[in-house]
Each structure stands twice: as structure tokens, then as C-alpha cells.
Amino acid sequence: MRYALLVLAFLAVLAVSLLGFRGATFVKPPIDVFPEWAFPGMKRQPKYKPQAESKFFADGRTDRPLPPGVVASSYGPAGQPLRDDDHLYAGKTATGAWAPGFPAALAIDRTFIKRGQERYVIYCQPCHGALGDGQGITKAYGMGATPTYHDDRLRQMPAGEIYNTITHGKNTMLSYADKLAPDERWAVVAYVRALQRAQQGTPADVPAAQQKELGIK
Amino acid sequence: MPKLFPKSANRLPLQILTFVGVLGGLAALGVTYYMTPKYTRVGYAPVQPVPFSHQLHAGQLGLDCRYCHSNVEKSGHANVPTSQTCMNCHNQIKPQSPLLAVVRQSYESGEAVPWVKIHSVPDYAYFNHAAHVTRGVSCVSCHDRIDQMETVQHAKPFSMEFCLDCHRAPQEAVRPRELVTNLGWQHPAGASGQLRDGQKLVDDWKIKPPQSCSGCHR
Fold first, then answer.
1. How far is A215 from chain B (nearest CA, A)?
2. CA–CA min distance B168, chain A (Å)
3. For residue A131, how many C-alpha atoms fall within 13 Å in the half-sphere facing its CB?
4. One digit per residue, pLDDT tens: chain A, 217 residues?
5. Interface membership of B43 toward A (CB under 8 Å)
6. B contact residues 144-173, partner A, Cβ 8 Å cutoff
7. Does any CB of chain A come closer than 8 Å to the CB of residue B93?
8. Would you give the DSSP letter of residue A199?
9. Domain residues for A160?
10. What is the dihedral of CA A122, A84, A97, A176, to 10 degrees?
11. Is position A25 within any domain?
12. How many domains does chain A have?
């Protein structure tokens, strides 16, 4: 009896020393307690999931790129199947020049600019900085080319051209079209305009009630 | 006639019972400890093709999770970023770094970077990021402090119990939407404040996470 229990205790110690404790870091794929070969088709059903691997396609991906020339039939918002509003989708007027203002389809109000601010902080602030002065965190690491928004060229720049910079990038700045939908890009443009305006404040812009508080006469 | 069994054999049935009892107990302990996701998954940190550090990018540089995982609020799948996303910066920051060779090659050739997937739920269960993130469930509830991890590590078990624990008491986790990607945030008034404000959000947004089987096994 004693020997049997001793052997058991030894086996338990052996198991613990081989298997270790919970929470230890490891690099091999996790052990499957109910493996796929014993229970086929449960955990891994024969279907494609996003960004997964495919043995069928030559490039090994389940996400298929669009063949060239394809126009999706439900690309735009409901009731407007094609992206044929050039101002909204390309930032251009009918003559092909950069559109100076915002598309008529969008209501420019406080929530719109708030949305733009939220998106700006995520996608632009790392380089262009919270103030739009080009002093984002990445400047110290070598992104020297990031310009400030507060010079005359960018203040005069038509909104459509800024929209185009977000959509297609410009020189060393790459495109953000995959991260921002067209209406979000316009919201960011609106916030860039708000940043530019904020740097040009005059004492007259401060509401009368606050002028005294801030010591402005 | 000589004795067939020695006297000690009288104790044998009891001894066998004890032995089987101890063996069964140990086996049960072993199974619960070693065959559940808390052991099999937690701590999984595969070697990635590029030694990408969340601690540097999300923690030190302060990049928002959505800069890279840009679909997390919009779709069920939280995308791993394209190599263009890396090149946004790395065309100028450390453009020659040998560590980034795989990314540069992928950007030029259009082939995918072979990132190893870490977290996954089995196909018989349904999970959706947007449904959680837009309802104020922070990444930290399920992925822990990614912004402090040098290499991503599976930190929570992702067992069915783990999902249900929160679905039964969402007020312990929900927070205002704009704080979802702020992993270090904790309610300034501590646990009681979280419960109070969490309950308020649950009531305001009519949050009702599914607890019936068909909610997740659909």
C-alpha cells in the first residue's frame, strides 16, 4: 500500500514538473483537449474566415482582391448605388478642379466636427500633432517631413485637395482610404479647418462673458 | 490446508478503495487544472515573423488601437493591419531596419505578412468585436494590458465560462465609449463607482448580452 501511494505521489510530482503551472508563457500552439482529428468539423468548419489562410488560392489568402475594372453594385449609400457624386467621393467639382467647400450631402454641425476630431486623434495626431503643427510624437523618431497646417498654402488649400490627400496620400504620406470612409474623411477635413481657425483667434473671438475672466480687454 | 490469503489480505479491499479514491481525486484535479483553457491557452505567445512590440507602439508612442486595428468598431473581425499601415511610418522611421525586411517585402510584392493568429474562438461559437466595442466593453477586459506587452500573449482563457461571467454582470465592465481603447483607465471612484456608472450605462443603452445558448451557438 505504502509503495503504491508513493508511486502515485511520484507520478503526481513528475506530472507537475513536466506540465508546469498555469499562466506560464509558451510559443507552441495550445494543446487541443478535443482534437480536430477525433471530432472533425466542429472547431474548424470548412469555411473561410476573414484574413485566414487558404490552400486553394495561389497567394494563400481567403480575402480576395477585386479583379481589375470591377464596380460593386452597392458601393455607395442606399439609393445611390454608384459613387457618382464627384464632390463627395473625389473632392472635385464638375470641371475637375479641387472643390473649395464641403459636399452638399453632408450636414456640417457640431457632431460632425466631433466625429472628425475623434478620427483625427486616432489617425493623424501621431504625425501632425494635437494642434496640427506637425509636431506629433513621430517627429522625434525621424518623420521630419510632416508639415504644419498653419501656413498660407494649407490655409488657402481647397477642402477637396485635403480630402484627396487623405484618400490618395501625398509624396511620403500614404493613403488613409482603407481606414476612413468618405464621410469620415470629410469630417477630418472639417476638423483640420477648425484647427487652422483656432490658431488665428483674435480677442474679438472670445465671448464677452469670458473676456473679463481671461483678462482680455 | 495452508492459508490461501495472509491475514493482511483482510485490509486489501479497504486499501484498494483508498488507492482508487486517491487516484480518482488526483486524476480529477489533474483534468480540471491541466485540461481547461486556463492552462492550455493562457500564456500562448507565438514567435511572430516581425518582432512587433505593442509596448513600444501602443504604450510608448501612444497610438490608438484603432490606428492599426481599424475595423474593430465596424466589423466582427478585428483586422490585423496591412503592411501599408506599417509603411506609413516605416518608410521614414528606420527604413533600413533588418527587423522590418518582411514588412517591406510584403509592401512591395503585395503578399501577406504571415502573422500567427493567437486568439481564436471555435467555429461553433459566434463572436463579434463591433457588438462589444461599440457597447463600451474595453479591449482590456478580454486581451488584458496589450499596451504593456512586448509580444502579444493570450492572457484570458476565452472559455465559455469567461464569456458568460461577463454576460451575467456586464455592469462590472462597461464604460463610456470613448474610453474603450484607453486600457489603463479605471473608474476614479473604484469598484463601487464602476458598478454604479456601469449599471447606469447598462440601463441607458438597454444592454442585454445573450445568455441563452443560441445567442452564441448560432
1. 34
2. 25
3. 8
4. 788 889 989 999 998 898 888 888 999 998 888 888 888 878 888 889 999 988 899 888 998 888 888 876 655 555 566 777 888 888 998 888 999 989 988 899 999 999 999 999 999 999 999 999 999 999 999 888 899 999 999 999 999 999 999 999 999 999 999 999 889 999 999 999 999 999 988 888 888 888 888 877 6
5. yes
6. 153-154
7. yes
8. T
9. 86-200
10. 20
11. no
12. 1
